[in-house]
Amino acid sequence: QVHLAESGGGLVQAGGSLRLSCAASGRTFSSSTMGWFRQAPGKEREFVAAISWNSGRTSYGDSAKGRFTISRDNAKNTVYLQMNSLKPEDTAVYYCAADARIGSSYVATGVREYDYWGQGTQVTVSS
């Protein structure tokens, strides 16, 4: 099993930056693809970014390209999402997710392709 815990959310002014962290515990973290998703009230959960176990592959949703950067530090069992140039439409609960498939280079982008989820951290961007 993998346990995920997000942190780093908060209130930020439009144009500002936040860095989210996801601390993972469990044997599979270092060899698991990790993703970030977000969900605003009344909306579907949306793919933001994902990174392979060895950081060799990344993928970004259209809304994140050019503004957000995903990274990971396997030695610290942590994945990060650096968010720059934040906009009010980025306001959502941000979730960290882990793909249970071990050692795969495939970077999943679908909600149903991930097996473990954190509790989420709220990001609010004011205008």
Give an overview of the whole structure.
With 127 residues, this protein is mainly beta. Helices cover 0% and strands 51% of the residues. It is built from no helices and eleven strands. Strands 2, 4, 5, 6, 9, 10 and 11 form a seven-stranded mixed beta sheet that branches. Strands 1-3-8-7 form a four-stranded antiparallel beta sheet, with no helix packed on it. The radius of gyration is 13 Å and the shape is globular.
Query: How many strands appear in the DSSP assignment?
Result: 11
Percentage of residues in strands: over 45%
Reading the helices and strands in chain order gives EEEEEEEEEEE
Number of contiguous helices: 0
Mind telling me the C-alpha Rg? 13 Å
Low-confidence stretches: none
